[in-house]
Amino acid sequence: MTTSEAPNTDTPAPRRCLWLLWAVAGIAYVIDQGSKLAVVAGLEGHAPVPVLGTWLELSVQRNPGAAFGLGEATTIVFTLIAAAVAVAIVRVSRRLASTPWAISLGLLLGGALGNLTDRLFRSPGDLRGAVVDFIAVRDFSVMNLADWAISCGSVLMLLLSFRGHELGPASSSSDDPGDSGSHARHSGLNVR
Is 139 tagged catalytic? Predict the structure, then answer.
């Protein structure tokens, strides 16, 4: 068997990581949207529901801006940023070969898509929809589960970056992780 006919052992790990990214993103998205539907149906227009006294309450608010209610007049900018983040994660996912990075990017993607869905389909619509926030932390902010997914994914991403954990193969010269020529180049073999 020649070097070019050797089975590629790099393909399964990246494929599993890609599936993990999509699974984490899907779960984060479904939980976020389900929780928003539930709190809008059951809590909107009602008094806050204490979870941990006044430190943590469920209180529905519509937020046209960013975190902490900033930028209410520039809702469309946040819509475009969320869309750009989602596109960037999908593009980067082609190089993904790390389980921790798959989880981190999956959380970011699921959260971005959750809030993007609100921006696109909630009133007033036209890329200006208000995000449903309902987790009120006293003296801090009112957030939703998409925000928590984005926050957790970002913290994990920073930790991975500081620890030098690679997203994918360190010396990849091909966008296709399944490229058998790429595997041969990484192992120092010449297949000409």
Answer: no
Q: Residue 153 is which amino acid? A: G
Query: To 5 degrees, how large is the angle CA 111–CA 117–CA 120?
Result: 140
The predicted structure's pLDDT at residue 154: 93
Q: Are 32 and 144 in contact (CB under 8 A)?
A: yes
Matching residue, tokens 């209180």: 59
126, 133, 176, 179: the active-site residue: 133
Residue 64 gets the label, from left (phi > 0), alpha (psi -120 to 50) or beta, of alpha
pLDDT tens digits, 47-78: 999 999 889 999 999 887 655 555 555 566 77
- Under-50 pLDDT residues of the chain: 1, 3-11, 171-192
Which one of 32, 118, 147, 179 is the catalytic residue? 147
Specify whether 175 is catalytic. no
